[in-house]
Amino acid sequence: MELSNSSLPDVRETVATPSYDRSAVTAGIIHFGVGGFHRAHQAMYLDRLMNQGKALDWGICGMGVMPSDTRMRDALKASDGLYTLVVKNPDGSRDVRIIGSIIDYVFAPDDPQAAVERLADPAIRIVSLTVTEGGYNVHPVTGEFDLANPQVQADLANPERPQTTFGLVCAGLKLRRERGIAPFTVMSCDNIQGNGEVAERMFTAFATAMDPELGAWLEANVPFPNSMVDRITPVTTDADRADVTTEYGIDDAWPVVSEDFVQWVLEDKFAAGRPAFEEAGVQLVDDVVPYELMKLRLLNASHQGLCYFGYLAGYRAVHDVVRNPLFAEFLLRYMDQEATPTLSPLPGVDLQAYKRKLIERFSNEYVADTVARLCAESSDRIPKWLMPVVRENLAAGRPVELSAAIVASWARYAEGVDESGEPIAVVDRLAEQLTAVAQRNREDLDAFIANRELFGDVVDDERFRSAYRDTLASLHSKGAIATLEKLVGTPRHSA
Questions:
Q1: Can you tell me whether residue 218 is helix, strand or coil?
Q2: How confident is the model over 167-215, as pLDDT tens digits?
Q3: Which residues pair with 59 in a beta bridge?
Q4: ∠ at Cα 345 (341, 349), nearest 5°?
């Protein structure tokens, strides 16, 4: 069966489908960056609400700006916006349903002015984003909006034919302002810290360059709520498509697969109303920061805790690493003893359950994740996710041995050769520099952590330096497994 509105009665015999009348759904949200994550996350939450008979005026209109977005446009057009969401549980079972909250898709390059008009429609009250970290046009050195970007320059020179998300959104806001229409909320759902604040700085900078009065109006009137989002959503493969056809009889050009866990913590700051997200499981809060730190210091830092040790030990799949009780023990001890003491109170979160759920998530073989992916771009990850834990614990006189061990495992990995003598392809913007320094590890145990741009002054702290040296020396002489055994002893936990 080809997935479409007309085939829903037949599809319903196999999987769950929208219980609401899709013809009654109207667009209240325009979303830039319709991909797997958006469809497994925000669009899924809205579909939940619609199945409760709510939020039918908050349907999603996707908007594409990149040439590659034509694939999503065509896939959604063929299926009337419907798609299959396959949730893969750790026990191998699946929860499958058809999501119906996306009701339209506009490919802006086809008619930029029509796209701007759609953004100026009073019915559109939220513009949401999953455009990746690179989509915010942050200059890698200054951290400010990159006005020299050629596409940005083209939009500023030809504001009537915008090509970028910035040009389109700001043109839509400008038209609303001129017509006396209330502004929409710009809601980032990207997996970056302070995503709303980043979006606000970047869009305000573009608007100010376009028209200083518009920039001032935007700054005063357009909310940019922060959010913390979480759901592992692998890239859809041909095997996934074939599986949906074989198992459920559905011909879907672009189904979505995801893990069973999903989380969205959202700052309750909107200009023109919002769906009742809290009734679909979203946590609405006044301050997202404590929840962001929970994720960064528990989930993200634990990824770093498993990946270098795991790769050195010969593992290549994340679930295989964490199914070794020694690795699960190491991660849980890091989370309990070093990360958790740095976190603020987290209303509505059972932290112990969250940490153990992380181990279960990492162990889910049905959501394939590679150790190599987690090892990539470490110079952007360790300083943001792990080093703040180290600094806070050093200042408070708390333990840092396990954090130091994670840094040492990165230093050993960065040498570019694993324990079997096989070369490691170090993927990092600083790969050449890091490998050159790491290859001096055996002659100078402090060489790697002497980089103050990455590690600050920890090389000057005897407690950290001593723990780091011990682990690095052990990695050289005994290997990853024996080093972990030395660090945690006999595992008390299993995956």
A1: helix
A2: 999 999 999 999 999 999 999 999 999 999 999 999 999 999 999 999 9
A3: 27
A4: 105
